[in-house]
Specification:
Layout lengths: L1 E5 L3 H12 L3 E5 L16 E2 L12 H10 L5 E3 L5 H12 L3 H29 L10 E5 L2 H10 L1 H5 L5 E4 H7 L12 E5 L3 E2 L2 H14 L3 E3 L4 E7 L2 E7 L2 E3 L3 E4 L5 H6 L8 E11 L10 E4 L4 E6 L2 E10 L12 H11 L9 E9 L6 E4 L5 E5 L5 H17 L16
Parallel strand pairs: 1-2, 1-13, 2-9, 4-17, 5-15, 13-20
Antiparallel strand pairs: 3-8, 5-7, 6-7, 10-11, 11-12, 14-17, 14-18, 15-16, 16-17, 19-20
Helix pairs in contact: 1-8, 1-11, 4-11
Bound molecules: flavin-adenine dinucleotide.
Length: about 425
């Protein structure tokens, strides 16, 4: 079958990988000049089933209200007159009950865990290098109260089978000596020894490069303007370089998926939530952290990619805007300087902002759309790097009519 994939982020490229593996002829349409240059470009790089908690939780409404008045950099919610934002927010609030938060978190954990396994298989199959570090991830707390709350909270993932260890300050520093200078800022941490970090954009580019040599056609600098339907089937994709036809079409357009889906009568609950990252060169390799992690009080994540450190933070409702100012990165850089001292050259930051394709539930939408030849793999939110390889495999199994390896309830359009 000839399958047209729209979008060459980590989700589109892994989807193309699975389709090609199943023997399909695959064409990928990407408006950028290369793969993985949007949300998959500057993310934190955490492969983190141990952080599968959904954002919609009983605590979230109060945090949103607080963000209206506080100047907090971690969460920025400014109400705007936009129907899609209100619709999405209402759906998000509906998912903030304890019961739904639990269900959605467990679904995310199952997908993240499955996906990490598929990532390892795909890495072995392709040999693609992406600065993978498999030393676990540290979720660090600055004070006893928040640490105790974190430990109480982790039970949901631990009970579902994720290995998690509670470390005191000495144990954290023994594992990650780069934090030795910040002893007073580490009351303790939760270590997820099976979590990992790696450069998502390098992985995406590496897999795409291999696919191109195996006959997958990548059409870069090609914008999909509309998915054209007639007689209940998608007929072609109208692009900036003319129509592209296939037997089937898969939407993998990340944060922009909802815009394209509207053309075929689908109101996808995928809304862009902006995040920021800054990448700095390592100047003292021994003093820089190897083990990625999160400062849970400042909500700043870090990961090491070879001779660089990536820091990320912030969830902002800013529509599709990806502009940024140096002041957007102050909290991240101040936090990292306190944690890691002189390990990096802080005077050479590379700034970036991107959009998380968030669903209210935090789980992606995978599988059939309404039309018989239209398919979806979208809405991977704040964990799309972690969930990509598993989502692609689930998609390919559904596309082929095979049984899926994990339960897909809540992951398909029909079961949401
Ligand atoms: C600050 C930040 C930190 C994050 N940290 C992590 C992390 O630590 N771990 C983790 O697992 N996840 C993380 N994520 C989430 C992760 O980056 C995303 O979920 C993932 O990259 C989404 O991949 P995607 O392929 O769906 O979207 P994208 O990478 O955005 O790809 C979509 C592609 O579609 C293309 N496209 C869109 N519209 C069109 C069109 N009309 N025509 C042609 N092409 C089109 C775009 O150009 C783009 O290349 C983070 C995200 C952010 C913003």
């Amino acid at each position: 079958m000839r399958v047209v994939v729209i979008g060459a982020g980590v989700v589109g490229v892994t989807t193309a990988y699975e389709l090609a593996r199943d023997g399909h002829e695959v064409v990928v349409i990407e408006r950028g000049e290369a793969p993985g240059r949007e949300t998959s470009w500057g993310n934190a790089g955490l492969i983190a089933p141990g952080h599968s908690y959904t954002w919609a939780s009983p605590k979230a409404p109060a945090m949103l209200v607080k963000s209206l008045v506080s100047k907090d950099q971690a969460l920025r919610f400014t109400p705007r007159l936009e129907f899609e934002l209100y619709r999405w927010s209402l759906l998000f609030l509906r998912n903030c009950t304890a019961e739904r938060a639990r269900t959605n978190t467990l679904r995310k954990l199952a997908l993240c865990t499955y996906s990490q396994g598929r990532l390892h298989e795909l890495t072995a199959e392709t040999g693609v290098a992406y600065d993978l570090i498999s030393k676990g991830l540290l979720y660090c707390y600055r004070d006893r109260e928040s640490f105790d709350a974190g430990v109480a909270h982790m039970g949901i993932l631990q009970d579902a089978g994720r290995t998690m260890q509670v470390l005191d300050t000495d144990a954290v520093i023994a594992l990650e000596p780069a934090l030795a200078g910040a002893r007073s800022l580490v009351a303790g941490a939760i270590l997820c020894p099976d979590d990992e970090s790696g450069d998502c954009s390098a992985f995406t580019a590496g897999v795409a490069e291999q696919l191109a040599t195996r006959g997958v056609e990548f059409r870069y600098s090609t914008t999909a303007h509309a998915i054209v339907e007639s007689s209940g089937r998608v007929q072609h994709v109208e692009t900036s370089r003319g129509p592209v036809e296939g037997d089937a079409y898969v939407l993998c357009a990340g944060p922009w998926a909802a815009k394209l889906a509207r053309g075929v009568g689908l109101r996808l609950p995928v809304y862009p939530i902006k995040g920021y990252s800054v990448t700095v060169p390592v100047i003292d390799a021994a003093a820089a952290p190897d083990v990625g992690g999160v400062d849970e009080n400042k909500l700043v994540a870090w990961a090491r990619f070879g001779d660089r450190i990536r820091l990320t933070s912030t969830a902002e409702f800013a529509g599709y805007d990806t502009t940024h100012e140096p002041s957007d990165f102050t909290v991240m850089l101040d936090t990292a300087k306190l944690l890691f001292g002189d390990a990096c050259d802080w005077s050479q930051p590379t700034y970036w902002a991107g959009l998380r394709p968030m669903t209210p539930e935090g789980t992606p939408i995978i599988g059939a759309a309404r039309q018989p030849n239209m398919w979806l793999n979208v809405g991977h939110g704040h964990m799309g790097w972690t969930m990509s390889c598993g989502s692609a495999r689930l998609f390919a199994d559904m596309f082929a009519g095979r049984a899926t390896d994990i339960d897909v309830t809540g992951l398909t359009l029909a079961s949401r």
